[in-house]
Every structure is written in structure tokens, then in C-alpha cells.
């Protein structure tokens, strides 16, 4: 492909990726030039795959082999529709900023060259560009997004509000992802491997006791519980009273169901009802009364008199 003259690009990303890749001399302040001596250069070039190094800042840690093979077949037929983005390190030496799936699939497809945007960027700018572009373009799992957010906060010295502006998310959404990193490694691995969804994980975060958290997680995986069911489990656990000796093995789901039955009975009889049951479905129902007339009222409801 012939060299093309640098062109100015406008981006809908506001102060996010567009600001990082901005190449307009009128918008390059002295402060920016102090960080990056050379003005950011933009162009599309055909670059040999052997001259490109992988991106050390790549947020994606796992590439599906079947998906890569499918992309490679598509590239054989259609070619590269979207150029990758690289930075120039030296003569005939480049480093990926984004597009590693296209890069890897092109090698599988047997290509020798690949179209690429060439940028000039320092390490911090490269990290921010790579993380933001991958978050917005790639199908990262929830844990990879969380790690990317954490790296942007820690390594690019951003605050949560600034991060939200960069990735187009509100602060609450950003915080929900970051909270995933507080979960035990076992649950984090399940998110990564798509055994549970972001919704399951958000429910589990609300359990403070790690052992109970892991117990409900295991139940959710083993029984393939829906997000709503896990939320009910967590709610029952957090709102329920400590289990008594008469029901030592009553799990949170069962306990939640019994509480709902108890509430319906209380509503039906117009008085407080005590319902107890163990894991073997043995228990008792107590309906207290305050007077003879109150007893007669309850008996009438039971159609005994």
C-alpha cells in the first residue's frame, strides 16, 4: 500500500482515545510536547509482520484458538478491513498498540505484511491507548475489563471520574467492575472462564464472609442458578437471623422460601405466625391468639367451627 499523507481524525470519544491519538498541531500544547518530543504522526503503512513486536501492555490474557482460526479464514478471503495500530521503535522495528487478534490471525493466514496506523507515543501513552481501545473495541470478559480499569487508575494516574470519561462509563459502572477484584481468586477465575456472569459476581460481592461467599458460589455453579436466584440467596443470607440448632443444615434458599411462607400465613391469619422447619421438612407452625374471640376468629378461618 502506498504511503499516505497524515490526515486529521475526529473522534466521538471526546477526551478518551481521540485525545490520545490527536495529531493536530494546533491542539498539541507545550506540555504535551514535553512528554512526547515528536508530534504524533498518523499514517497507514504496509508493515512486515516479522518487524512487529507484541504489545506488553495488552489487557487481553486469553485468545480463543477457534475464534482466531475463523478470523484467519476471513482475512484470507476479505483481507484486513481494519488496520492495526503500532508505534515505531526503530528502523524496521514496531510495537503493537492495538489489534493483536488481527495480527495473530494474519500470521495464521500466512500474510507477510499488514496495514497499520503508525503512531509516536511514550510508554504511558501507549498503555492508555492500548487499554482504552481494547476496552471499547474488544469483547473482553468482565475480569479483564476490571484489570484494565485498575491499570488505568494505577499506572496512568487517573481518578475514577477521569477513567469514566475515558471509557464512556459512569462512575458507578466503573466501581462495579473494580469491586470484582476484591472477590476470592476462585470466583475471579470463574468470571474469567465464563462459569458465572457479571450479574452473579455482583450479587456475591455483597457477602462479607468469604466462606459463605464461596459456598453460595459453589451452589450457583453446581446447580446452574440464575442471577435472580443467587440474588435471593444473598438477600436471605444477609437479612436472615442466625440459624438455630433445630435447623442447622437449612440452606439460604430454603430459609428464604420458608420466610416467604411464614409471611403469607401471617397475612392470611392476621396475626404473627411462627414457622419452623429443618432440612428433612420436619417442623411446626405456631399461631398465637390473644383472647377467646381471637381464637374463634382463627378457627373460623380454618373452617373448624
UniProtKB/TrEMBL annotation:
GO terms for biological process: chromosome segregation; positive regulation of sporulation resulting in formation of a cellular spore. InterPro entries: Chromosome_partition/occlusion, HTH_ParB/Spo0J, ParB/RepB/Spo0J, ParB/Sulfiredoxin_sf, ParB_dimer_C, ParB_N. GO terms for molecular function: DNA binding. The keyword Ion transport does not apply. Residues 45-135 form the ParB-like N-terminal domain. Keywords: Chromosome partition, DNA-binding. One of its GO terms (cellular component) is chromosome. Residues 1-29 are annotated as: Disordered. Transmembrane segments: none annotated. The keyword Cell wall biogenesis/degradation does not apply. CDD domains: SPO0J_N. Pfam families: HTH_ParB, ParB_C, ParB_N. It comes from the Bacteria. NCBIfam families: parB_part (TIGR00180). Belongs to the ParB family. This is Chromosome partitioning protein, ParB family. It comes from Algoriphagus zhangzhouensis.
Amino acid at each position: 500500500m502506498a504511503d499516505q499523507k497524515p490526515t486529521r481524525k475526529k473522534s466521538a470519544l471526546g477526551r478518551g482515545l481521540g485525545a490520545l491519538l490527536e495529531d493536530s498541531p494546533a491542539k498539541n500544547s507545550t506540555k504535551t510536547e514535553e512528554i512526547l518530543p515528536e508530534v504524533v504522526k498518523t499514517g497507514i503503512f504496509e508493515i512486515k509482520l516479522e518487524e512487529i513486536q507484541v504489545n506488553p501492555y495488552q489487557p487481553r490474557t486469553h485468545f480463543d484458538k477457534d475464534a482466531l482460526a475463523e478470523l484467519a479464514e476471513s482475512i484470507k478471503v476479505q483481507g484486513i478491513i481494519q488496520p492495526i495500530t503500532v508505534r515505531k521503535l526503530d528502523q524496521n522495528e514496531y510495537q503493537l498498540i492495538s489489534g493483536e487478534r488481527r495480527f495473530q490471525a494474519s500470521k495464521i493466514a500466512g500474510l507477510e505484511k499488514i496495514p497499520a496506523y503508525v503512531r509516536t507515543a511514550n510508554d504511558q501513552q501507549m498503555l492508555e491507548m492500548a487499554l482504552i481501545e481494547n476496552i471499547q473495541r474488544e469483547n473482553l470478559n468482565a475480569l479483564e475489563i476490571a484489570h484494565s480499569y485498575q491499570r488505568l487508575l494505577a499506572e496512568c494516574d487517573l481518578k475514577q471520574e477521569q477513567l469514566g470519561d475515558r471509557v464512556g462509563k459512569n462512575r458507578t459502572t466503573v466501581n462495579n467492575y473494580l469491586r470484582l477484584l476484591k472477590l476470592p481468586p476462585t470466583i475471579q477465575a470463574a468470571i474469567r472462564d465464563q462459569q458465572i456472569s457479571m450479574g452473579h459476581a455482583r450479587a456475591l460481592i455483597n457477602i462479607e464472609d468469604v466462606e459463605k461467599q464461596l459456598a453460595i458460589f459453589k451452589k450457583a455453579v453446581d446447580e446452574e442458578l440464575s442471577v435472580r436466584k443467587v440474588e435471593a440467596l444473598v438477600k436471605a443470607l444477609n437479612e436472615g437471623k442466625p440459624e438455630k440448632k433445630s435447623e442447622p443444615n437449612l440452606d439460604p434458599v430454603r430459609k428464604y422460601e420458608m420466610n416467604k411462607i411464614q409471611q403469607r400465613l401471617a397475612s392470611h391469619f392476621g396475626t404473627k405466625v411462627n414457622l419452623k422447619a429443618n432440612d428433612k421438612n420436619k417442623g411446626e407452625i405456631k399461631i398465637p391468639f390473644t383472647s377467646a374471640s381471637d381464637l374463634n376468629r382463627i378457627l373460623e378461618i380454618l373452617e373448624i367451627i
